[in-house]
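Comment thread on ticket #2218

A.B. wrote:
> Attaching the input chain for the structure job we discussed in standup.
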Amino acid sequence: MTSGFPKTPRLSFPRWQGFPNLPVMDRYIATELIPPFLFGVGAFSSLGVSIDALFELIRRVTESGLPISVAVQVLLLKFPQFIAYAFPMSILLANLMTYSRLSSDSELTALKACGVSVYRMILPALLVCLLVTGLTFAFNELIVPSANYQATLTLARALNDEDPSFQERNILYQEFRQEEVDGEKEDTLSRLFYAKEFDGERMRGLTILDFSQEGLNQIVSAKSATWNGSEKAWDFRNGTIYVVSPDGSFRNIVKFEEQQLKLPRGPLDLASQPRDYDEMNIAQSLEYLELLQQSGSEDKIQKLKVRIQQRYALPFVCVAFGLVGAALGSRLDRGGRSTSFAISLVIIFTYYLLTVIFGSIAQLGMITPFLGAWLPNIFGLTAAFLLLARSSR
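C.D. wrote:
> Ran it. Output below, let me know if you need it in another format.
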């Protein structure tokens, strides 16, 4: 016997191919997160590239005669960096908008009445945040550095500045060898390479202290030197070689106009590092850090260490932002896109302000690079858990 009531249509949600057994509530909330997330990616990345790159390119088009086609190409190459920056902001906006809508429509209240805890409601948001974290990390490592580097090269070629002149001053490179002292291996200074300046092709004002030979030290002084790639050696010009005996007296003095010495290429790699911090991934940054550690430049070493840690930390802000957004959104009974967008901007500004402050403190050596990069994330996660604890009462 059938009743006279009309059959209630069954709600259907997309069955995600990779997650066929995902519960209906999780699929529903995750699906609701996608449109505002995509909206945020478009809005935040467009806003960022307009402020940072567009105005500068317009100035170069009008003042330097940069072709518009090249300006558009550079603009497109700059987009991946701002898309990566937009991912954390967008996940914050998406969670705020989604959970505030669910709260205003009393859907969260209905779920609580069915015995679903706040922490269980947040679970789908957390899963989406973790996916976006991986996506952000992949963008920052695989796409952003090479795109930024290509943008720099494209702009340089268009302005007839493919090999831009630059001057690196006070290049100091140390080479070590391992020696056994009292039964233990220790690093001992083998050579000390100093150049007053590097103009992109030629080192000038060089002094090399060579301790590589037992019982014999050499001092090489030269006006200039260039790297000979075919011979894998340095071509020195207009210099003097001082051979020093163990007692400190000069054994021999040799003046030369041209002299080739088999010395490492490291000083050239250190002085001619062509990429900015935003044009290197973590692996390239670690290689450059190894070179910097040979130079003894503590300021540059500390700055690079902070930047490397920030590259690790940035993707994980998606988790902090997502949890804060979900916790705040679940407490907003009324709020549209404008309210969520305004709250997002305040949180984003606060986070990046903390990033700049703690990063600067870490560069000064007052805290470790790890703390300088991760403290903003720790504060964000702490705020999220406090908000969730209050919502669960």
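A.B. wrote:
> Thanks. Noting for the ticket: The longest helix spans residues 118-158.
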